[in-house]
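Thread: Newbie trying to understand structure tokens

Hi all, I'm a second-year student working on a class project, and my supervisor (Dr. K.) asked me to get a predicted structure for one chain before our next meeting. I've only ever worked with sequences, so writing a 3D structure as a token string is new to me. If someone could post the tokens and maybe explain what I'm looking at, I'd be very grateful. Here's the chain:
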Amino acid sequence: MTSGLEFRVTPATPVPAAERAKLIEDPGFGKLFTDHMVTIEWTEGKGWHDAELRPRAPFSLDPASAVLHYAQEIFEGMKAYRGRGGEITMFRPEQNARRFNESAARMAMPQIPEDLFLEAVEKIVAADRDWIPDGDGSLYLRPFMFSDEVFLGVRPAAHYIFCVIASPVGPYFKGGGKPVTIWVSDTYTRAATGGTGAAKCGGNYAGSLIAQAEAIRQGCDQVVFLDAAERRWVEELGGMNVFFVMDDGSIVTPPLGTILPGITRASLIELARADGVKVEEKPYSFDEWKADAESGRLREVFACGTAAVVAAIGKVRFVGGEFSIGDASTAGPVTQKLREALVGIQRGESNDERGWIRKIA
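---
Reply by user tm_fold:
Sure, no problem. This is what the structure looks like when written as tokens:
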């Protein structure tokens, strides 16, 4: 199905094949970019127009562009995979389209028809499919939208640009799947009730960077935030949702509301429940986390998201001390089983009985 909006195509001069192959042998994360990008414009009174697949290039922005002053900007993160037979797939992109529009509504931005969103993403994947690494790598896709109307005034803008860029990536965390260490921030919070915590907007991440820098100074890989009201309840990491596995096999994860409704999160909950695991979406305090880890009631903790997929958490540091989850050296069996089930579906290596995979022609 296509959106009905005609795309202009301006082919890029591709990076030579030999050079591209060398680059994607070890792409890192978010450092390399493909040959093309997609852009679509929205104008008040006109709607969506001027859809184009074109060579990746810088934007030209007026210093008074609204995004630079009032931060009307949202984005998504998703991946395309190369299967063993060379088939190109994406994982639940319809959910990304839906969440993108939920973010747009919260930020007073225009919503893009889901079929147009999907068509835009598929066009860049098809054009730049040679950039998808083999093996464990993937093509990270970044659809985003920002306001570029030239004005200084606090109101929703009248003109926006939707864009999709693509980046070949390897693992998000280095270390070959070794459990990560996280820092519990008692100074900074990510979101509050009524705020933008459930929207995927740049401001949420900008506000988390100082806490992430604090985590790095403490020798940690990531920061985890507590709620803004009581500084008691665990919410999420700087860019990932979090799960707790108990000694009876049940799983607890913080409820939605002020946290991002992760697509990986929702998928893992569904997979676990289908396997007979009790999953509760309920508040879980940092004091409970510490006590349960020390008593042995808490057996595993893992974080999840599009970029990192599933990452075991081995140690937790906070002002005044630290504690470990299990032996802190390896991912637990529940974490490993869920990761393998999810990755198997994403890469077309297991049966997609839920219809989560979208094949790219």
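A couple of things are worth pointing out once you decode it. The chain has two domains: 7-169, 180-346. The first strand starts at residue 7 and ends at 9. Feel free to ask follow-ups in this thread.
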